[in-house]
Amino acid sequence: MIAKRIIPCLDVKEGRTVKGVHFENLIDAGDIVELAARYSEEGADELVFLDITASHDRRETRRDWVERVARATRVPFTVGGGITSERDVEALLESGADKISVNSAAIDNPALIDRLARAFGSQCVVAAIDAKQEQGSWRVYRQGGRVATNRWLFEWAREVVNRGAGEILFTSMDHDGTRRGFALHPLALLDEMLRVPVIASGGAGSPGDFHDAFVVGRASAALAAGIFHFGDMTIPELKRYLHANGINVRITG
Length: 253
Description:
eight-stranded parallel beta barrel; alpha/beta; 10 helices
């Protein structure tokens, strides 16, 4: 059985890690390098770095930030924010990223996913989807949750996978920062309809929430930020809990 992955997320603004609720009211959560080093040492399976204002500011992800974090971590490292071309991906991979995450640019130009998958392989391309419940479904948002689109979660997820995305990072904007648990029903539907791994994001507040994401939501990985950044839970504590409750996770040390 493939081990479930625990993935801390660094949402980065102006070179600092930030965290909010429903993508709003962001507060400082710490130094990006210090947090990356800590999570690598604690046994995180991967790390995600999102330059959350890059698309809104119409700029590339800051390579110097990526290089600093890459030097501090020994685990696979995904970078997103402002990626619009093969050249952007090449620069990030040269700076130390292992995978890239695309969101707004793919919504604007879906063929970007086809091009990136052909150039770098599907295993390198993570499609990040931010969505909130509206009109009985899940509307997709772009630019860090600032702008509503005419796309809907399940149709869009199927399209990006068909275009070559090797993984889906689904964040429920309704659950983000609430610490009330992940959006389990849409997670389970995504797992049922897609042939690629799905990462659960938004709402982690307790070890039991991760357990539910894996068992009920059938996610391949679970991503969290605030509970790790602010010391509510450590990665070793979480993995010991999951292991004791029947979840296959990698435990180091």
